[in-house]
Amino acid sequence: MTDEELITMVREQRTSVPMTTPVDQIISRGRAVRTRRRIPGIAGALAGAAALALAVAALLPAGHQAGRQPPIQLDAWTVVKHVDGTIVVTVRQLHDPAGLERTLRADGVPASVTFFGHEPRACHNYPLDLALMHRVFGGHGPPLVIHPSALPSGTGVQLNPGHYPRGGPIALAAGLVRASPRCTGS
Amino acid sequence: MGTQRPDFTEFYRGSKDECLFTVLLSVGDIDTAQDLVAEAFARAWASWRTVSGHPAPAAWVVRTALNANISRWRRRRREVPIPDPAAIADRASADGAGGPVDPRIMAALLRLPARQRQVVALRLFLDLDTGRTAAALGIAPGTVQAHLGRAIAALRADLVPERQQEAPS
After folding, report:
1. Residue of B26, B71, B111 to mutate when probing chain A, most A C-beta within 10 A
2. Could you give the domains of chain B?
3. Which chain A residues contact residue B9 at CB under 8 A?
4. A40 Cα to chain B: minimum distance (Å)
5. According to a count of CB atoms within 10 Å of the terminal CB, is the N or C end of chain B lower?
6. What does pTM read for this prediction?
7. For the segment A64-102, what is each residue's pLDDT rounded down to a tens digit?
8. Cα dist. B135→A16, A53, B67 in Å?
9. Contact at 8 Å (CB) between A3 and B152?
């Protein structure tokens, strides 16, 4: 069997599972999405941003271990820096992104934080590398764990917490970007 | 706005099955994949002016569906469904309309590493060229080729011996 024959055989599978939702139903749902959407482009921005490929939970799990340093405890979000350098981020409410950004930067993480509904700051995406993403973010949450030591030189993190999908609980979309004063503060 | 509907409808009808299959390979459950793809297409309709200008609108839909799936996955407390190729084949047959699902091919695809599966999905199922696949995944074109080559080798190792064994000598 040649490669072409193998590819053809595999390709034939792509229409083997029919998408049965009528287009009218899709459009009806699309109208509802459009009506609710006041700030367009976030989904597209996320979809198009190669770096924003990892979404992790922001809800604090029952088994969460307290940090060895006193956490910075606010109503909206929590940042805990452990002695091994890892940083745990929990977002409960979409308030004060600038404060979260400042806190992360103070903990040594070049960071850009914007919340859902606001255009992410213009940053240059770092080439998508899932293995690197897992080293930096510790895999999927919850909660978001950042390993700053795994960040390559010249990179930072971009967080875009929000309700994904709309109406759902808060999740963090996290990605890697090229660090710059304009984007990540350093 | 009136001119959007025909274009979108054509796009939906022409790419829905490929998008569903691509998402199904990542999700492993037909019902979940249907929901995710339907929602992603709805978002595409809501932003059709932007999405229709995307170099690969189907890839946009798939990416949007998979992003939404990550949130679902989290809400389910990290429960990850174990895809069952035979169950997928049975379910697809029950739905009718599509072609026959070969559980062996489905299983071989599901066994591929995630990145290889992504490349196969974009290159072979969505018909993106190497450049667009590379752009969608944020990797170099050469890396796309390398992943595709490894994926084809793995699929061959999985599928061809079985087929040869079935063939009378």
Report:
1. B71
2. 1-80 (1.10.1740), 112-169 (1.10.10.10)
3. 23, 27
4. 8
5. C
6. 0.51
7. 333 344 444 445 788 888 888 888 888 877 888 888 899
8. 27, 13, 17
9. yes
